[in-house]
């Protein structure tokens, strides 16, 4: 299941993105947003988040979306029963999220913060943390710190929802 339509352009964008991120670490992500090299940005909420929200399966209360980027998932989950905090250390991503969501009818139920997930101290713990593209974007040696931070920020009965790239399915298409 490889991307065929526009794959040359997609692959060149991914390659350029990898160069920026590899050269500049955290500043590389900002450069990607500034240059519009965001192949991970779906341009809409993650379908499973829409489904979980619509079926009432997501916990109520406070939710956190680290590395929220354009903020589509933040806006999709926000409602009178769930206040959502979108966190990103990219100034450009944060501005884009605010711009895209400024006229949302549920805007009083979410906020976007330009903060570093690893150093930010939330005023309250969260009932839900949703991670889709954040964990996979950090260096492998930082992943144990990610786990510690999630544990620190999540209420004892809170829920972590994370989506992982289906490596086995992807590899089965390459190596049948």
Characterization of the model:
With 176 residues, this protein is an alpha/beta fold. It has two domains: 39 residues; 116 residues, Rossmann fold, CATH 3.40.50.150. Helices cover 41% and strands 19% of the residues. It is built from seven helices and five strands; from the N terminus they run H-H-H-E-H-E-H-E-E-H-E-H. Strands 3-2-1-4-5 form a five-stranded parallel sheet, with helices on both faces. 26% of the residues are buried. The N terminus is likely disordered.
Give the mean pLDDT.
84
Number of H/I helices: 7
Supply the CATH class of the largest domain: Alpha Beta
CATH topology of the largest domain, by name, is Rossmann fold
Give a quick account of the main beta sheet: strands, pairing sense, barrel closure: 5 strands, parallel
What is the alpha-carbon Rg in Å? Answer: 17 Å
Q: Tell me the count of domains.
A: 2
Overall geometry comes to globular
Uncertain spans: 1-8
User: Which architecture of the largest domain per CATH?
Assistant: 3-Layer(aba) Sandwich
Tally of DSSP β-strands: 5
Strand content: 15-25%
Please provide the ordered H/E string of secondary-structure elements. HHHEHEHEEHEH
**Span between termini:** 11 Å
Helix content: 40-55%
Structural class: alpha/beta
Task: Give the strand line-up of the largest sheet.
Answer: 3-2-1-4-5
């Amino acid at each position: 299941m490889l991307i065929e339509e526009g794959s040359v352009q997609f692959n060149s964008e991914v390659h350029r993105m990898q160069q920026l991120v590899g050269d500049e670490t955290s500043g590389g992500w900002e450069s990607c947003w500034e240059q519009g090299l965001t192949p991970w940005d779906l341009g809409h909420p993650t379908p499973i988040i829409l489904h979980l929200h619509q079926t009432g399966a997501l916990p109520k209360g406070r939710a956190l979306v680290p590395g929220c980027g354009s903020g589509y998932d933040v806006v999709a989950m926000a409602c009178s029963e769930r206040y959502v905090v979108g966190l990103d250390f990219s100034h450009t991503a944060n501005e884009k999220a605010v711009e895209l969501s400024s006229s949302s009818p549920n805007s009083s139920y979410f906020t976007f913060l330009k903060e570093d997930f690893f150093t930010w101290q939330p005023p309250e713990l969260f009932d839900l943390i949703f991670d889709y593209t954040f964990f996979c974007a950090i260096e492998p040696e930082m992943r144990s710190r990610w786990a510690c931070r999630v544990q620190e920020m999540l209420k004892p009965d809170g829920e972590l929802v994370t989506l992982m790239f289906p490596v086995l399915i992807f590899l089965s298409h390459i190596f049948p």
